[in-house]
Amino acid sequence: MECSQFKANLIDFRQGTLEEELHRSANLHLSSCPSCSRLMKGLDEVDELIEREKALDPGPFVATRILQRIDREFETPVAIKTPGWIRVLQPVAVALALICGILIGSNASKSDGVPADNLAKTTDNIEFLRSNLYISDFMDEDKVLDLNK
Amino acid sequence: MTEPELIKGILQRDHRAFECLVNRYQKQVIKTASYFLGNMEDAEDLSQEIFIDIIYSINSFKQNSSLSTWIYRITVNKSLNMVKKQQRRGIMVRLESLFSHSAEHHTRHDPEPSISPDGVAEQEKRQLLHAAINRLPENQRIAFVLHKFDDQSYKQIAEIMKTGLPAVESLIHRAKLNLQQKLMYQFSEYKKT
Ligand SMILES: [Zn+2]
After folding, report:
1. Which member of A16, A68, A149, B156 has the lowest number of beta carbons within 10 Å of its beta carbon?
2. Do A62 and B13 touch (CB under 8 A)?
3. Chain B window 15-44: which residues touch A at a Cβ cutoff of 8 Å?
4. Number of domains in chain B
5. Range of the structural domain that residue B139 is part of
6. CA of B154: how far to CAs of A82, A126, B118, B160, B168, in Å?
7. What digits encode the pLDDT tens for the residues B98-111?
8. pLDDT tens digit string along B108-136?
C-alpha cells in the first residue's frame, strides 16, 4: 500500500470499518512508514484530547447562577409589606379624606360672596389632622384647597 | 415532574418548573455549548441566556420531538451565534494588534499556557482543535460535534438537525475528512517541535 492509499482509507481504518484484507495491508504500511505512523499518532492525540474534554463537567454552582438569572428575568413584583399601624390608619385616612372632600365641596358651593374664613378653618383642620395622624397623603386635598382659594 | 407538567409549569412561569428545567437540562446545555465554544466558562455564561430563551419560546415548542431535542436545537443555534460573535471580536483584536506594535500588548493578551506532562500545552492544543472545528461548514460542524463530543447517535442528530440519516452520515464523514486534512499535520508537526 502507498501513502496516498493509506490516507484515503484512514477514516475507515481508524473506525475499524475497512475490509479485512485492506486493513491488513494498511497495518503493514503503518508499521513501515514513519510519516503515516506520525500522522496516526497525531490523530490519536486529537481523539485523546476530545475524550479529556468530554470528561470536563460544569462548575458546582452554575445551576444557582442560572436560576438567579431566570428569577431576575421573570421576577413578579413582591407585595410591599406595610407596617401594621399604617394598615390600621389607611381606612381612617380614606374616611377623613372623604369627609374633607364633602366639606370642601359644600363650602365651595356656598362660597359665592362669602369670606374665605370657613375655608381657612378647613385648612387648619386638615393641618391639625395631618400633624396628629402623621398622614402625608393629603396633598390632593391641599391642591383642591388651592384651587378653591 | 413529567415532561407535559414541566412544559405547563414553564408556560405558567412557575418557579418550581424553572428549577426542574435547570436541574434536568443544565449539564446537557452547558456541555454541548462548551463543545462548540471550546471552553467551559463561556458555555456556563451562555447557558443563562439559553435557559431564558427556552422559557420565552416554550410556547413555540410543538412537541413533535422530545423536549431534549428541542433544547439541543436552541443550544446549538445560540452556541453557533456566540462563536460568530467571538470570531468577529477576534478579527477586531487581530486588527488592533496589527496597528499596535507594542510587544507588551502581545504578552498581556496571551493566556498562560498550562503544560501537560508530555510538555505540550493542553490549552493550546484544544484551541488548535476548536479553531479547526470552527472552520468546518456549519452543518458539518454541528453533526461532527454532536457525534464526536456529545455521543449522539446518527438518528438523534438527524432529529436535532431535522434531516435524514444518510445526510448525517455524509456530513460526519466529510467533517472527519476535512478535519483530518486540517489537523493531522498540525498535530504531528506539533509533536515534533
Ligand atoms: Zn505512508
Report:
1. A16
2. no
3. 15, 18-19, 22-23, 26-27, 30-31, 34-35, 40, 43-44
4. 2
5. 114-193
6. 60, 80, 35, 10, 6
7. 666 544 444 444 44
8. 444 443 444 454 578 888 888 999 999 99
